Amino acid sequence: MTISSLTNSIAISIISSLLLFTSLSSSSSSFLSPDGLSLLALKSAISSDPTHALTSWSSNDPTPCYWAGITCDHTTQLVTSISLPNKALSGYLPSELASLLSLRRLSLSNNSLSGPIPTQISSLQKLTHLDLSSNLLSGSLPECLINLTHLAGTLNLSYNRFSGEVPPAYGRFPVALSLDLRHNNLTGKIPQVGSLLNQGPTAFSGNPNLCGFPLNSLCPDPEAQNPNNPNRVFSNPENPGVGFVSNGGRKNGSVIVSVVSGIAVVIGVVFVSALVFRRKWRRSEEGRMGREEKLEKEVEVEVSEEGQKGKFVAVDEGFGLELEDLLRASAYVVGKSRSGIVYRVVAGRGSGGAGAMVAVRRLSEADATWRFKEFEAEVEAIGRVQHPNVVRLRAYYYASDEKLLVSEFIRNGSLYTALHGGPAEPSPPLSWAARLKIAQGIARGLTHIHECSPRKHVHGNIKSSKILLDDDLHPYISGFGLARLVQGTSKSTNPALKKLNLNQITLSPKNIPSSSIIYTAPEVRVLGSKFTQKSDVYSFGIVLLEILTSRSPELGLENDGKGLESLVRRAFQEAKPLSEIIDSTLVHEIHAKKQVVAAFHVALSCTEPDPEVRPRMRTVCDSLDRIKSQ
């Protein structure tokens, strides 16, 4: 046989094989949609299907929309959801999944899938929910996931075998995204960027070699570990908690532990020498539902202070959550201030249930100087102040080195954000009716604080960021009592300081946060002065001016050092047009001009330099209520 005839024979053989393959393919899947073919690639990548979850996936079907675990758009017949949790599937994730361009939800949790996440998955631009938790996936966390620009519901990669560092690019995920990277083999420092700063420790726990905020594991200082560094810090063998962070140790019967689950993990610093929290994790088979986590907790609370026990107290009789519920909760950082860190906590979440949402404030470490009886008296005094316009305290926890305040969570942000916009986008303008309603609500709440007790309470830190709004723009005053708790727990040795009431808060100018100084009455900025109810009135007046103008209170500081109050007062003295000082979005509301002017006069009376000239909050409240009927 010649070379030419041999070549022709091979060519004919190849062509015949291709025709046979094409014929077989056509006979089996000629009518199956492209999305169906991509799903068959997933089925081919599954090496074990003991529950027969994919039995209905057949190449003879024209569409995959009726296959188990598959959801399609009724109009386009394109696949929008793959939901196959708890099926005990073994195998890997094929790159063909990237062809499902209309996929919005991918849930393959509680299986035994292994290998890396294919980088092609970043092509799923419509994906909003990705749950690959409780598998055997490995490799590094794919940085390309940040290209999933619509991912805003869930990204759950917990309980896998991912290794390496958390990509700093993950800080570009939306703040609202529920990120869960628990129980992997991640290492290094958690990047302090973007939305990662808003994640609670529940997003990162269970990675022993991961460190940094919000975990309780401090990252070791490279200089301190250098044996040639003269400033090297050595751990104390008598107290492993001093120096480098340790997993735990015993001394005089007390136990030092680093992290607990849920809220205790979220809070970051466990109740050192005050709370003994032992836990054991078990992994077990729960029938065909696959692997499910069981947590056994043994809690012992022991505070070496006058025989008192660490104590969780529900101040609000209607509060149904227990300490155990908070320990198991998911939490997210929503704010940080001089008084501590605030977390949004979702507790008691059941199958299909939304769960109870509360705010938990972990008071700063300086607050440890409170004795239990004093702390209890102060917090319960705060809890007795109940009004529709004051954030309600629901419960508190006391231990010698850990103090938590649990309050209702107001979900629509602050008045400051409503007036000035947030970091991501501006807020829609508020109508005059909404602004007046907000001002009247704040006035009623502050009046109640001033009049509800013979102690003549003082708030001490009224500002727009302390006014929270619900979905109906109903205002709530937050932070009542915090000024007292922070001030009263200073390192002062003066015993009289501990006997101050909530109406006797003494601060020096250096202790007033820069964000609060412009709201602070002139007489309080003097060393050794006290907050009073009249200084609260001044702060309310600044907030009212802020509501009327939508301008920052710091406006004008560079000119005369007096800010917004001085600018508005000078405008009225010079009889300037109202349009020059009010929010421009209110100019078209001609019918409200008299009401707006009346509100300005109330604000200016509240911000009189002489506290004796300022009205009481009851008078302010009545004046604003009269505006409504004008």
From TrEMBL:
An annotated GO cellular component: membrane
PROSITE patterns recorded: PROTEIN_KINASE_DOM
Family indicated by similarity: Belongs to the RLP family.
Domain Protein kinase: residue ranges: 328-630
GO-annotated molecular function: ATP binding; protein kinase activity
Protein name: Protein kinase domain-containing protein
Compartments it resides in: Membrane
Annotated InterPro entries: Kinase-like_dom_sf, Leu-rich_rpt, LRR_dom_sf, LRR_N_plant-typ, PRK1-6/SRF4-like, Prot_kinase_dom, Ser-Thr/Tyr_kinase_cat_dom
Domain of life (superkingdom): Eukaryota
UniProt entry keywords in alphabetical sequence: Glycoprotein, Leucine-rich repeat, Membrane, Repeat, Signal, Transmembrane, Transmembrane helix
Alphabetized Pfam families for the sequence: LRR_1, LRRNT_2, PK_Tyr_Ser-Thr
Transmembrane portions of the chain: 255-277
Organism of derivation: Rhododendron griersonianum
Signal peptide: 1-27
Membrane topology per record: Single-pass type I membrane protein
